[in-house]
């Protein structure tokens, strides 16, 4: 009969601190310390307490008072889940703000022979086919922030784009997320 190992509170805390380092996984730390990953995960949950909030799919992780994106999980969700979690409603012709492959500067990448997708917007100046934004305030937010506009348009390429536009948008988002987030968790 094997004897159960006991670990000091200091050892547990040190292991948990290692897990919170950017780019370090629970499995990696557990292997280095010679303990099971499940045990280390349990210590981590216990240390966080019952009120600790955990974002769904761990698209972001908290480090102290800061929340940083978990790039790998975020990109996986964008590539494989966004089109199912946020299915776009499409409608008839109307005025709005261009999105997906029709939004600048992406509209120079792809030629369009039909009406472009647009977020319905009374202030929009482009005639196109209605395409529901992720949230009703998206057109106003996109008008106020050109970088956000480009990111939201890329997400819309994934949500409803054809294979070529979708693959291009995934690659572009991956490049932007990985290059603009030096402190994020990969």
Kindly give the count of domains: 2
Radius of gyration from the CA trace? 22 Å
Strand content: 5-15%
Overall body shape = elongated
Elements, N to C (H/E): HHHEEHHEEEHHH
Q: List how many beta strands DSSP finds.
A: 5
Low-confidence stretches: none
Task: Please render the helix and strand layout as text.
Layout: H1 9-19, H2 26-33, H3 37-48, E1 60-63, E2 66-69, H4 71-80, H5 82-85, E3 90-98, E4 117-120, E5 126-131, H6 138-144, H7 146-160, H8 163-180
Parallel strand pairs: 4-5
Antiparallel strand pairs: 1-2, 3-4, 3-5
Helix pairs in contact: 1-3, 2-3, 4-8, 6-7, 7-8
Description:
This protein is of the alpha+beta class and 186 residues long. It has 2 domains: 52 residues, Arc Repressor Mutant, subunit A, CATH 1.10.10; 98 residues, no CATH class. Helices cover 46% and strands 15% of the residues. Strands 3, 4 and 5 form a 3-stranded mixed β-sheet that branches. Strands 1-2 form a two-stranded antiparallel ribbon. A hairpin with a 2-residue loop joins strand 1 and strand 2. Helix 4 packs antiparallel against helix 8, helix 6 packs across helix 7 and helix 7 packs antiparallel against helix 8. The protein is elongated. The two termini are 42 Å apart.
Task: Please give a quick description of this structure.
The protein has 186 residues and is of the alpha+beta class. The protein contains eight helices and five strands, in the order H-H-H-E-E-H-H-E-E-E-H-H-H. Helices cover 46% and strands 15% of the residues.
């Amino acid at each position: 009969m094997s004897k159960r190992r006991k670990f000091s509170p200091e050892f547990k805390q040190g292991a948990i601190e290692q897990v919170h380092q950017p780019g370090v996984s629970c499995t990696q730390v557990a292997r280095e310390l010679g303990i099971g990953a499940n045990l280390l995960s349990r210590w981590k949950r216990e240390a966080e307490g019952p009120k600790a909030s955990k974002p769904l799919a761990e698209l972001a992780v908290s480090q102290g008072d800061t929340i940083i994106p978990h790039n790998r999980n975020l990109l996986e969700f964008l590539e494989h889940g966004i089109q199912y979690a946020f299915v776009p409603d499409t409608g008839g012709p109307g005025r709005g703000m261009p999105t997906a492959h029709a939004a600048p500067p992406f509209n120079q990448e792809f030629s369009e022979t039909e009406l472009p997708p647009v977020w319905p917007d009374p202030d929009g100046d482009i005639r196109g086919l209605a395409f529901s934004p992720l949230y009703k305030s998206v057109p106003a937010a996109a008008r106020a922030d050109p970088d956000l506009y480009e990111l939201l348009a890329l997400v819309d390429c994934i949500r409803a784009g054809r294979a070529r536009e979708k693959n291009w948008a995934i690659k572009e988002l991956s490049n932007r997320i990985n290059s603009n987030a030096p402190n994020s968790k990969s």
